[in-house]
Structures are given as structure tokens and as C-alpha cells.
Design a protein that fits this description.
Number of domains of chain A: 3
Distance between the termini of chain A: 48 Å
CATH class of the largest domain in chain A: Alpha Beta
CATH topology of the largest domain in chain B: Rossmann fold
CATH superfamily of the largest domain in chain B: NADH-ubiquinone oxidoreductase 51kDa subunit
Shape of chain B: globular
CATH class of the largest domain in chain B: Alpha Beta
Number of helices of chain B: 24
Helix content of chain A: 25-40%
Oligomer: heterodimer
Radius of gyration of chain B: 27 Å
CATH architecture of the largest domain in chain A: Roll
Largest interface: A-B, 38 and 35 residues
Structural class of chain A: alpha+beta
Radius of gyration of chain A: 19 Å
Helix content of chain B: 25-40%
Shape of chain A: globular
Strand order of the largest sheet of chain B: 12-11-15-13-14
Number of strands of chain A: 7
Strand content of chain B: 5-15%
Distance between the termini of chain B: 84 Å
CATH topology of the largest domain in chain A: Ubiquitin-like (UB roll)
Number of domains of chain B: 5
Strand order of the largest sheet of chain A: 2-1-5-3-4
Largest sheet of chain B: 5 strands, mixed
Structural class of chain B: alpha/beta
CATH architecture of the largest domain in chain B: 3-Layer(aba) Sandwich
Number of helices of chain A: 7
Chain lengths: 209, 643
């Protein structure tokens, strides 16, 4: 069934079951993402893809990667409210993602686009930067596409980490699919490709992650 | 146990008659709260044991029954002993008081005056619950039966009319009529959100997909809140009965009770309740001979606050990590294993049997336009009568805190009340006359929440309060989404800095910026509401934040880094009390020598301030101004000569 919705003032046709992000993508409208990966299920962790949706006169913010298209839905991918969300999210996540005081890749691009001050909360960040924004692309790709479950999440809240399970990680020798996915480059630069020393569940339990 | 099964409504009534006929209404019953961790922690188990020993010793076993119950509400005065049928009410009972209660009250039917409740403000004594303001102003629809019930003993519940609502629903009403009754009652979810229960049931009922599930959310975890625990511990059958009725209305044959791991007695009592209900045939196949089947499993939580969130709770039931999922379809439509799943809080389910028994009209006669019925609150903090209270909606916060709570201890000034737990916010004095109502509390920036009510007095710092709740959420966030995880981390650091005198210009704006983004963009309700304590304290007490940041002053004189202790040499009488109580030996002086505090050694534990006799009030807390110099060493106290 075809669904018609409006994105940034433009009529967009979509199929039932699609998300707003997918519909926008097909219509050539760009919505930024950090945790989205088209080969795996939507996850909704980075919230950078937040957009304004209007339905029956009610406006709310939703994560476009998970919000299903609906007939007559009005979507705004840019607005002062949306831009503020994206700016503050980049500012909040930048201290974790930093290497030598700088961010790279998509985060750098977004910081520029949304005028985010990546050093705004740096003095308040007292933990060790992990260079991981917990987007979970590695974890989900390994679970859902590779099927090895060699890397997973451990811990909760600000203690949450992605870590390799050494007994599973033998498969990694030949796979390494997550190396290219990692948006901060942490995985390829911090693993030794063999035993994942310093990046494993054991390291987490030993308090080293 | 096959012989126990009841297979008709008449059978249930016969069973009830049988139970009642064996009970002598004039027999003495000693009711003690031993099935609640708070009663236990105050020594109720020892009191109960002493009663058992002494009653045996006195040969009174046939004349006196002991009823071990769950929480009876007035936790401040535990161990409480209530003696029925008169309803005599003894507070703060110690094991050594037991022989006197037995000889005076149980044998001679007299009063032990010294164990009666004394009103701290009026000095009046009360012999019965109805004489005690704490109880007099309550309306205990769901919580009142706790004192009559041993929760491990289903017959106690049946004796009070238990499972009659189930029988009525199954035999006198269609599922649609039950649903309609709940809708008409305007019951709203007691877990926090206040969503209309009937609409939720209807959504699950009408959603495509089988099987459908009904679930009890007993993952309560707000700081200072224990309503659900006390209901689950003290009257598990009321929740179970509500759940079975809900299942019948919705068309569900399978339910779950999610009990958090930290509630061992609630868990144990729930397991027992299910077992006993199965034996009588209130659960299982062909319930009461109606043809309706329903079974229920208990799921023990694994220690995560966030598991109380609906998608997280359902993930946990499925055996996966209890963290919230990205979902824009309600769990009422797609929940456990993608099936329609109706999740209600403990207290919501417990409201169902009385509504079915007494009708939606009755329920609608209580409360405000938008909020019907009663609500249980755990009244804690700086209030004279702490405990669990159930009040009709519409009662004002002032009545709750002053009429029931007995006001603020030590004549201090009320400052604010935190409602709704870490997702709620503070409400200042000017709004004390606000009625308790889902929508009214939300308008103030707080919320009803599940019922945690923390009262704060003039000595409570609002920035520190925000820091406390934000830290709580920071530790309890699952860490999945950036706004919640990093927002809480950053808010906690900013608030800690402010409380330590390291706040900077722009911090208030930064808090507001982060809070707005958390509210808008977090994945689940933990994140969208977590900043509320910071936002409401800023809304109502902005000047306190500014004093911390600009003047390095804590107006409540509570933040340690910004407060110093000083003994006024003019007022000190060298009584040695603070001198002896100081844990770090920071206080110098001696007999007849004016005391003074060595600031380097002082850990600001507040002990000297608390122990200095009020008639001297020599210890002062100073914040934001320079500390006066100590007296010259060896300064003697000048005393007025006695005539």
C-alpha cells in the first residue's frame, strides 16, 4: 500500500512498513544518523535522526529511524528544536569520542553543520574518553548479519561498553566486518586483530575498560 | 489438594461461611507487621516471637490469636501492635513491653497508657487508629485490609470478601461489561503515567494476535517509595484477583508478575499466593467452574531500575537484557513476544476488585474530575509521621503533609516536596494547596508518579536535591541512548560542581539546554523525565543556584564545601557536649574554657550543631561569609553568679 506523507514541505510516497528515515532517503532528503545501519534493525540510540512529526495537530519529536510512515504525516527534518537537539547531542558525545582533543568523521561534519561547540562540556567530562559512542553498529552487525555474537554490550549507564567475548572472537580473524563500520575508528585502531587485548569482557570485569 | 478446588460461586460463598464460622468475632487478635521489611528492620519479629512465647507461657493460646501481617502504614512508629476486636493501637513496642500488654490488655482488657500514640504537636494520646490524625484523614480502599490479613494465608483474604469480585465478574458479567465498568470508573494507571486503565485494556483486547498477556509491574524503585512492595507483601491476593479479572475482560489466558529482585518477601508472598489460589481454583483451568482459564508466572527482576519501563520489562520477561527498545507501537498492541500485552502497576490491579464489587459509580464519587479514587503515597523525609498513606484524590498536599504527616519536625520551615520520584519534581510552599490530581501535579512541572513523596525542610539545599536525583538516574540509566547517558553524566558533574562551589556562569543555561534535549530526544521515559528534578528546582529556586555559583554560598547551609561550623564564643557555656561528640576531635576547649572548632579537622558532619542544647544555640553554620576568628586560646566562660 502506498502512503503519502509530507517531508519538509515535499509530498513523499512511501510503502507501508517503511520508516520516516527510509522514506526521506528515497526522496533524496538527508537526515543525519550515527547509529543507523541499513542491514540491521533500527536501534534508536544516537537520537541524531530526531525529527519533528505532526499528527492530528500534535507535534512531537521522534527518532526517524524507528518511526513508521503514516498517511498524512507531516515531517520536519530541520527546525530550531531539531537543530538544538542535534547540536547538544554532538556537544554531549564529543568528549567521549575525542582523540587528542579532536573529533573525526561524521561527528566532525555534524559539529560543523549544527554549530556545535565540541569543547563545551569537555571540562565536565572526568572519565577516560573511550572513543566509543555506543552506537552499537558493531554489536548489531555481528549479531544480526554475521551471527557470531563476538562483541556485545556490557555494563549499564555511563559504565556501558562494547566488548569482545574472547572465546567467540576466533571468527573475527577472518571477518572483521565491524572494523569498517566503527564511526570513530576505535575498533581498527585499538584491537590487535587476534586476542582483542584491552577490549574484552575480561578487561571490563577487571575494570580496565 | 484436589479436594480444595472450588467449582462454583456458591462453593466460594460456602467456603467463606465455613472460614467465618470457625472464627469467633470476639476472640482477641494481636496483629503485628512482620511481613514487611520495614517492620522487620524495626524489630517486629522479636516482638512477635515474644508474644508467642508469653502467650504460650500464660496458657492463652485458645483465647488469643496472633496475626502476622504486612505493612500497616505507620512505619515511623513500628513495631506497632494492634489488638482486635477493640482495635487498640500500641506504638514502638519492644519485646519487654509484651508481658505488660498481655497482663493488662489481653487478660484484663485494660490500656497500657505509655504505649499509646502521643500526638507530637498536641500531646494528645490516642487509643485507636481512629483517634490518630495519621489514620483519621486517610481513605484506605486498597491498603486498609493489610492489617487484617496474614498474606501467607488465603483464608484471611477470603474471610474479608476476597475473590467475590472475581466470582461476580465471571458469573454476572461478560468480559465486555467488566471492561466497560473499568472504563466508566475512570481508573488511571497508578505507576506514574496516569494512563486510563480501561483504554489500555481495550487496546489490548482489540489488538490482533494471540495469546494476549496481562502483566503486573512490581519493579518499583523510586528512592523513598515502597507502596507496591507493601501491597505485594501485605495483600498479594488483591493484586492477583485484579489481574485475573483483567485477564477475563481482556481475553488473556496467561499473565506475569514482575517482582524486583530486591523485594524478597514480596516475591515469596506472591509465589505462596499463586499456589494457594491455584489450590482453590481461582487460577488454572476452569476457574470457579466458569470455563475461563488463566495461569500466571512470577518473573524475578535482575536489579535494574530501568526494567520498570514497559518495553524493558517485557524484554526481561522474554529472557533478554532489560533495556528499553525503540518502538512507536504501544506494548498494549505489541509487547511480550510481539503479542498484545497489558501492563499495569501493582496498585492499579489492586483497585480492580473494589471497583467490580462496588461499581464504577462508587469509584467516581471519590476524587477530582480528572483523577478518581484514592492514591497510596509513601510519605517520607522531613515530616513527623512517615509511613504509607492512602488518601482520596483531591486532598491537598498541605493536608497530606500537615494533617496526616503531622508537619515538619522540630518546628522547622517547610521548603518543598518532591513528588513522582526521580522523574518528578519539587513543589514549593506556594503550591501546597494544590489538590492531588494527575494533571494538577503535571502542571507544576512535577508528576503524580507512583507515589513517592519526599518532604524537605529549610535545611535542604535544592541544588543538592537535584544532584541527588540526577545521580540516581545516572546510575540507573541503561546507557543506550546518548541524551540520557551523556546528558545525565554531564548534568551530574555540573550539579556536583555547583554544590562544591565550582559552578561557573552559564551553568544554569547549560542545565536547561541539556534538560530540554533529554526531554525531547531520549529513547524512553526514564530519560525524558530524568531532568525534571533539575528543571523544577531551577524553576522555583533559581536564586539558590545563583547563590552557589556567584557568591559560593549555600542558602540552606547544607552543601559541605560551602559551609563552615563555628562556635559563638559569646554563647558557648563550655558544656563539653559538642566537645565529646565530635568524631574527629576538631573541637578544642575544656571545662570552663570556651570551645572552638579547628577548621582543618572539621568534616562538617553536623553533629556539634545537632547536639548543642537549643537554650545555648552556640554552634552556627556559616556560608558565603568570612568565618569570625576563634577566641583566644583558653578563654574562660563568664558565668552569671547564682543568687
Amino acid at each position: 500500500m502506498t502512503i503519502t506523507l509530507q517531508i519538509d514541505g515535499k509530498e513523499v510516497k512511501a510503502r507501508e512498513g517503511m520508516t520516516v528515515l527510509e522514506a526521506a532517503k528515497e526522496a533524496g532528503i538527508k537526515i543525519p544518523t550515527l547509529c543507523y545501519l541499513d542491514k540491521v534493525k533500527p536501534y534508536g540510540a544516537c537520537r541524531i535522526c530526531s525529527v519533528e512529526v505532526e499528527r492530528k495537530g500534535r507535534v512531537r519529536i521522534v527518532a526517524s529511524c524507528g518511526y513508521p510512515v503514516e498517511q498524512g504525516l507531516v515531517v520536519r527534518t530541520r527546525s530550531p528544536r531539531v537543530d538544538r537537539i542535534r547540536k547538544v547531542i554532538i556537544e554531549l558525545v564529543a568528549p567521549t569520542a575525542m582523540v587528542d582533543g579532536e573529533v573525526a568523521g561524521e561527528i566532525k561534519k555534524l559539529a560543523k553543520e549544527y554549530n556545535a561547540n565540541i569543547r563545551r562540556f569537555k571540562s565536565r567530562f572526568r572519565a577516560k574518553p573511550t572513543r566509543c559512542i555506543l552506537c552499537g553498529q558493531c554489536v548489531r552487525y555481528c549479531d544480526e548479519v554475521v551471527g557470531e555474537h563476538a562483541i556485545g554490550f556490557v555494563g549499564r549507564g555511563i559504565e556501558r561498553r562494547a566488548a569482545f567475548f574472547p572465546e567467540k572472537a576466533r571468527a573475527c580473524l577472518t571477518c572483521q566486518a565491524c572494523f569498517d563500520l566503527c564511526p570513530t575508528g576505535k575498533i581498527p585502531s585499538e584491537t590487535d586483530f587476534v586476542v582483542f587485548d584491552g577490549f574484552s569482557v575480561d578487561d571490563y570485569l577487571a575494570g580496565k575498560l | 489438594m484436589a479436594g480444595k478446588r472450588i467449582s462454583s460461586p456458591e462453593g466460594l460463598e460456602q467456603l467463606r461461611k465455613g472460614i467465618l464460622s470457625k472464627r469467633d468475632p470476639n476472640k482477641l487478635i494481636v496483629s503485628i507487621c512482620t511481613m514487611s521489611v520495614c517492620g522487620q528492620s524495626r524489630g517486629s519479629v522479636d516482638v512477635c516471637k515474644r508474644f508467642k512465647d508469653e502467650i504460650r507461657h500464660a496458657g492463652l493460646e485458645n483465647k488469643v490469636d496472633i496475626r502476622e501481617t504486612g505493612c500497616q502504614g505507620f512505619c515511623e512508629r513500628e513495631p506497632v501492635v494492634i489488638i482486635f476486636p477493640d482495635g487498640l493501637y500500641y506504638v514502638n513496642v519492644k519485646p519487654d513491653d509484651v508481658p505488660e500488654i498481655i497482663s493488662t490488655t489481653l487478660v484484663k482488657r485494660g490500656l497500657v497508657e505509655r504505649l499509646l500514640y502521643t500526638d507530637p504537636t498536641t500531646g494528645k494520646k490516642g487509643a485507636k487508629e481512629s483517634d490518630i490524625p495519621f489514620y483519621k484523614n486517610q481513605m484506605r480502599i486498597v491498603f486498609g485490609n493489610n492489617r487484617y490479613i496474614n498474606p501467607r494465608y488465603i483464608d484471611d483474604y477470603i474471610a474479608l470478601g476476597g475473590y467475590s469480585a472475581l466470582s461476580k465478574a465471571l458469573f454476572q458479567m461478560t468480559p465486555e461489561e467488566v471492561l466497560e465498568e473499568i472504563k466508566k470508573s475512570n481508573l488511571r494507571g497508578r505507576g506514574g503515567g496516569g494512563f486510563p486503565t480501561g483504554i489500555k485494556w481495550e487496546t489490548t483486547k482489540n489488538a490482533p494476535g494471540e495469546p494476549k498477556y496481562v502483566i503486573v509491574n512490581c519493579d518499583e524503585g523510586d528512592p523513598g517509595a515502597y507502596m507496591d512492595r507493601s501491597l505485594m507483601e501485605g495483600n498479594p491476593h488483591s493484586v492477583l484477583e485484579g489481574l485475573i479479572i483483567g485477564a477475563y475482560a481482556i481475553g488473556s489466558q496467561e499473565g506475569f508478575i514482575y517482582v524486583r529482585q530486591e523485594y524478597p518477601i514480596a516475591y515469596e508472598n506472591t509465589i505462596q499466593a499463586i499456589k494457594q489460589a491455584e489450590e482453590y481454583g481461582f487460577l488454572g483451568e476452569n476457574i470457579l467452574g466458569s470455563g475461563f482459564d488463566f495461569k500466571v508466572k512470577v518473573h524475578l527482576g535482575a536489579g535494574a531500575f530501568v526494567s520498570g519501563e514497559s518495553t524493558a520489562l517485557m524484554s526481561a520477561i522474554e529472557g533478554r537484557v532489560g533495556e528499553p527498545k525503540l518502538k512507536y507501537i504501544h506494548t498494549a498492541v505489541s509487547g511480550v513476544k510481539g503479542r498484545p500485552s497489558c501492563l499495569n502497576n501493582v496498585e492499579t490491579w489492586a483497585n480492580v476488585p473494589p471497583i467490580i464489587n462496588k461499581g464504577a459509580m462508587w469509584f467516581n464519587s471519590i476524587g477530582t474530575d480528572g483523577s478518581k479514587g484514592s492514591k497510596i503515597f509513601s510519605l517520607v523525609g522531613k515530616v513527623n509521621n512517615t509511613g504509607l498513606v492512602e488518601v482520596p484524590m483531591g486532598m491537598t498536599l498541605r493536608q497530606l503533609i500537615y494533617d496526616i504527616g503531622g508537619g515538619i519536625p522540630q518546628g522547622k520551615r517547610f521548603k518543598a516536596v518532591q513528588t513522582g520520584g526521580p522523574s518528578g519534581g519539587v513543589i514549593p510552599e506556594q503550591y501546597l494547596d494544590t489538590p492531588i490530581d494527575f494533571d494538577e501535579l503535571t502542571k507544576l512541572g512535577s508528576m503524580m508518579g507512583s507515589g513517592g513523596t519526599v518532604v524537605m525542610d529549610e535545611d535542604t539545599c535544592m541544588a543538592d536535591t537535584a544532584r541527588y536525583f540526577i545521580s540516581f538516574c545516572c546510575e540507573e540509566s541503561c546507557g543506550k541512548c546518548i541524551p540520557c547517558r551523556e546528558g545525565l553524566r554531564t548534568l551530574r558533574e555540573i550539579l556536583t560542581d555547583i554544590c562544591e562551589g565550582k559552578g561557573q556562569e552559564g551553568d544554569i543555561e547549560a542545565i536547561e539546554d541539556i534538560a530540554a534535549v533529554m526531554q525531547d530526544a531520549s529513547l524512553c521515559a526514564l530519560g525524558t523525565t530524568a531532568a525534571n528534578p533539575a528543571l523544577t528546582t531551577l524553576k522555583y529556586f533559581r536564586d539558590e543556584y545563583q547563590a552557589h555559583i556567584r557568591e559560593k554560598r549555600c542558602p540552606a547551609k547544607s552543601c559541605k564545601a560551602l559551609t563552615s561550623y563555628y562556635i559563638d564564643p559569646e554563647k558557648c557555656t563550655a558544656c563539653m557536649i559538642c566537645f565529646k561528640n565530635c568524631p574527629t576531635e576538631a573541637i578544642h576547649g575544656g571545662k570552663n574554657i570556651v570551645h572552638w572548632i579547628e577548621q582543618e579537622k572539621c568534616i562538617k558532619c553536623n553533629t556539634c550543631f545537632e547536639v548543642c542544647p537549643p537554650r545555648f544555640s552556640a554552634v552556627r553554620r556559616i556560608s558565603g561569609e568570612p568565618l569570625p576568628p576563634p577566641p583566644a586560646p583558653g578563654t574562660k566562660v563568664i558565668r552569671e553568679k547564682k543568687r
